[in-house]
UniProtKB/TrEMBL annotation:
<dbReference type="InterPro" id="IPR008731">
    <property type="entry name" value="PTS_EIN"/>
</dbReference>
<dbReference type="InterPro" id="IPR000121">
    <property type="entry name" value="PEP_util_C"/>
</dbReference>
<dbReference type="Pfam" id="PF02896">
    <property type="entry name" value="PEP-utilizers_C"/>
</dbReference>
<dbReference type="InterPro" id="IPR015813">
    <property type="entry name" value="Pyrv/PenolPyrv_kinase-like_dom"/>
</dbReference>
<comment type="similarity">
    <text>Belongs to the PEP-utilizing enzyme family.</text>
</comment>
<dbReference type="InterPro" id="IPR036637">
    <property type="entry name" value="Phosphohistidine_dom_sf"/>
</dbReference>
<keyword id="KW-0762">Sugar transport</keyword>
<dbReference type="InterPro" id="IPR029016">
    <property type="entry name" value="GAF-like_dom_sf"/>
</dbReference>
<keyword id="KW-0479">Metal-binding</keyword>
<protein>
    <recommendedName>
        <fullName>phosphoenolpyruvate--protein phosphotransferase</fullName>
        <ecNumber>2.7.3.9</ecNumber>
    </recommendedName>
</protein>
<dbReference type="Pfam" id="PF01590">
    <property type="entry name" value="GAF"/>
</dbReference>
<dbReference type="GO" id="GO:0008965">
    <property type="term" value="F:phosphoenolpyruvate-protein phosphotransferase activity"/>
</dbReference>
<dbReference type="Pfam" id="PF05524">
    <property type="entry name" value="PEP-utilisers_N"/>
</dbReference>
<keyword id="KW-0813">Transport</keyword>
<dbReference type="InterPro" id="IPR006318">
    <property type="entry name" value="PTS_EI-like"/>
</dbReference>
<dbReference type="InterPro" id="IPR050499">
    <property type="entry name" value="PEP-utilizing_PTS_enzyme"/>
</dbReference>
<dbReference type="InterPro" id="IPR040442">
    <property type="entry name" value="Pyrv_kinase-like_dom_sf"/>
</dbReference>
Length: 756
């Protein structure tokens, strides 16, 4: 069926004319089903559209009772049409009435027809309706006829997506495309955001659907495929760390798909049936996406996701452009929806227009989440299907407190969340009023509330939050968002800006903590590791590559000229590592002194306690450093053998358990014994209930995200710390494994009227 009178090319040409005509939507649909029936020599052609209430309504028919239009309907999963919609797969039957799913609708008059071909109307893998042809004679439709009907269904999907058919809906009825959807993920950063969807990698809208010359389109397709294959081969030929391990496996999958003959053949068939090259890619991509949504094997689903990304790359090749520069046309209340994205990509968006972030993937400690938390963006991750369910401009609500995402919310839901935002704003005003109040407990015990930072965009929050200083400045973020190793001048400039913004408040710079899950694409020194969190990273890496550490230390020393400098070493395992680092620092001090540079007035060196081995070296450690900081995220991960990026076990063990709190108290007491200041920077510090536990076991300095300082300070100012310390000591002395510290803290807070 190529260019015969009944071929798909003729049908698509006729459909193009009908789409261009200024017709009433119902008349256009009626003519479309009539053209399809004539072209396919079918006695019946019917279009069913999926409504928001999961009913499939007959919108147009040629051959069935015309009075049944907008009256005949089937539930999703009911009958042959409902089965097609639910499975997103075609049905080709020679005797439809013998199929177990057949449902008889007397108002349609279809009982006289036997052969049946139905295909889903798909867009981005979502079923929007079902297109059916029928005949009285018993016959099995040919493969090229199935392909032709699927091609026509794609055209109809675009009609539905434009909203043209919404004019045909009865009052109170909505189509599925505009149906409110609520999805549940994992809360990655607190806050509530109301706004409109901005797809990070926006779905490319193919407007040129019908080709004028199949041969020309086939050449365009082959040219784009060649270019795509070359770019993948080029990436695979590199030897740097970004393309080893999992990254390489993804690219190998890309290459496999790019050279897959079956995929290319399906693209060529769609072009020969009358579609443009880009429309062919969209059709095959949508078919594959629909099948992917019904797969249960996680590996196959992941590989299909790779295919999906590859198809988008091919579409961009064909249309001669990269991803749309949405940052220039963002709505003022943008909520980014993405499968995944890099930390640098988020920073490309203007912060003042962002209201939230929704990720289909991600983990609480992934880089993108760290950056989102740093800029105070409500974030929900692990929201499966968020991208395919969303359209640019859809209204959306992100609740970073309970992990809820509401797409196209109903008015009452939107109003409830608007009130929640207003309530949070009142709370924030209260926190602002507390900003200049002394940070001390009800019984006058002073506590330092510090903030975590890592980028220049964090600096204004130092004054806004009322933090006592920066307890953790993650210097590696500058490396992660750069395209190459930042030169010493760039590092010095950033560190100077940080110290200037602090205006005399203490700032603790953690030396570069890369390796593990923090991969720098341009760093060519690492190898693939089975357990990267336990591998060549942080101080281990920089001691082995002292040039990297020396460059950073030199930048820090120059930036802090005439001021105090606090440096902290990450992931220390042995005290000897501190001594090695100190030797490198002393060498850089002598070098700068020799050339007359202004040096820091005072230099303090600290270490992070993240590796359990240090728990048996506390005496030596406290005497070897000027201060210590507990990295509670990693320490808890290593103590409990819990991969903090694994969503299956991320909530299996509680950091407020008796064993872990005993470890933290042991560190505090060692610091007291040797006069070494101890602070804690990690997730534990950022929530009022866990901050209360830390204060109760002896911490007097904790560091957290800027947005957490207000709620923690509000709790702290009402806290009778001496009473809490007694309660915590008794709880940790209790050898019953069933002690519920969280319940105990809530009871204490309720008894003393402390808001958590």
């Amino acid at each position: 069926m190529r260019d015969t009178a009944g071929g798909p090319r003729v049908l698509l040409r006729r459909l193009r004319e009908l789409m261009a005509d200024a017709l009433d939507p119902q008349k256009r649909l009626d003519k479309i089903v009539r053209e399809i029936a004539q072209n396919m020599v079918a006695e019946v052609c019917s279009l069913y559209v999926l409504r928001a209430d999961s009913m499939l309504e007959l919108y147009a028919t040629e051959g069935l009772n015309p009075d049944a239009v907008h009256l005949a309907q089937l539930r999703l999963g009911q009958g042959l049409v409902g089965t097609i919609a639910a499975s997103a797969r075609p049905l080709n039957l020679s005797d439809a009435q013998k199929h177990p799913a057949f449902a008889y609708l007397p108002e349609t008059g279809e009982e006289i027809y036997h052969s049946f071909l139905g295909v889903p109307v798909l867009r981005a893998g979502r079923t929007l309706g079902v297109l059916v042809v029928q005949n009285r004679t018993m016959r099995h439709y040919r493969e090229d006829e199935v392909e032709a009907l699927e091609t026509v269904a794609m055209v109809i999907a675009e009609m539905i997506a434009t909203g043209d058919l919404a004019r045909l809906t009865r009052p109170g009825i909505e189509l599925d495309l505009s149906r409110p959807v609520s999805m549940t993920g994992l809360p990655f950063n607190e806050g509530v955001g109301l706004g409109h969807v901005v797809l990070h990698e926006p779905r490319i809208v193919v407007t040129a659907l019908f080709n004028e010359d199949s041969d020309e389109e086939l050449v365009r397709l082959e040219t784009a495929l060649d270019s795509l294959r070359l770019s993948i081969d080029d990436m695979l030929s590199r030897r740097d760390v970004a393309f080893e391990g999992e990254h390489r496996a993804v690219l190998e999958a890309y290459r496999m798909f790019a050279n897959d003959r079956g995929w290319v053949r399906r693209l060529q068939e769609a072009i020969n049936n009358g579609l443009t090259a880009e429309a062919a890619v969209e059709k095959v991509q949508s078919d594959m996406r629909a099948r992917m949504m019904h797969m249960t094997d996680p590996y196959l689903r992941e590989r299909m996701s790779d295919f999906d990304d590859l198809a988008n790359r091919l579409l961009r090749q064909l249309m001669g452009r990269g991803p749309d520069a949405l940052a220039e046309i963002l709505p003022k209340d943008a909520i980014i929806v993405a499968r995944s994205m890099g930390a640098a990509e988020l920073l490309d968006y203007p912060r003042q227009k962002l209201r939230g972030l929704v990720l289909e993937e991600g983990a609480p400690t992934s880089h993108i989440v760290i950056v989102a938390r740093a800029i105070g963006l409500p974030t929900v991750g692990q929201v499966k299907g968020a991208v395919s369910m969303s359209e640019n401009g859809d209204a959306i609500i992100v609740d970073g407190e309970d992990g809820q995402v509401h797409l196209r919310p109903q008015a009452d839901v939107e109003e409830a969340y608007a009130e929640k935002v207003r309530f949070r704003a009142r709370r924030q005003k209260l926190y602002q009023e507390l900003r200049d109040r002394p940070t001390e407990t009800r019984d006058s015990v002073p506590v330092d509330l510090m903030m975590n930072a890592g980028l220049a965009v964090d600096l204004p929050q130092l004054a806004q939050s009322g933090a006592a200083g920066i307890g953790l400045f993650r210097t590696e973020l500058q490396f992660m968002v750069a395209a190459a190793f930042p030169r010493v001048e760039a590092q010095e400039r950033l560190y100077s800006e940080v110290l200037d913004a602090a205006d005399g408040k203490p700032v603790t710079f953690r030396t570069i903590d890369i390796g593990g899950d923090k991969v720098l694409p341009y760093f060519k020194g690492a190898q693939h590791e089975e357990n990267p969190a336990l591998g060549w990273r942080a101080i281990r890496l920089t001691l082995d590559r002292p040039g990297l550490l020396r460059t950073q230390i030199r930048a820090l020393l120059k930036a802090a000229g005439g001021r105090e400098l606090r440096m902290m070493l990450p992931m220390v395992t042995e005290v000897s590592e501190v001594r090695q680092a100190r030797e490198i620092i002393d060498r850089e001090v002598r070098h700068l002194s020799r050339f007359g540079y202004l040096l820091p007035t005072r230099l303090k060196l600290g270490a992070m306690i993240e590796v359990p081995a240090l728990l048996w070296q506390l005496e030596e450690l406290m005497q070897a450093v000027d201060f210590v900081s507990v990295g509670s995220n990693d320490l808890f991960q290593f103590v409990t053998a819990t991969d903090r990026g694994n969503t299956r076990i991320a909530d299996r063990f509680d950091p407020l358990s008796v064993p872990f709190l005993r470890i933290l108290r042991q560190i505090v007491r060692a610091g007291d014994q040797y006069g070494t200041p101890v602070t804690l920077c990690g997730e534990l510090a950022g929530r009022p209930i866990s901050a209360m536990a830390l204060l109760g076991i002896g911490f007097r300095s904790i560091s957290m995200a800027p947005a957490a300082i207000g709620p923690v300070k509000a709790m702290l100012c009402e806290l009778p710390l001496s009473d809490l310390s007694v309660v915590m000591d008794e709880a940790l002395a209790n050898h019953s494994a069933s002690t519920d510290i969280r319940a105990l803290l809530r009871d204490f807070a309720q008894k003393h009227n402390i808001a958590l």
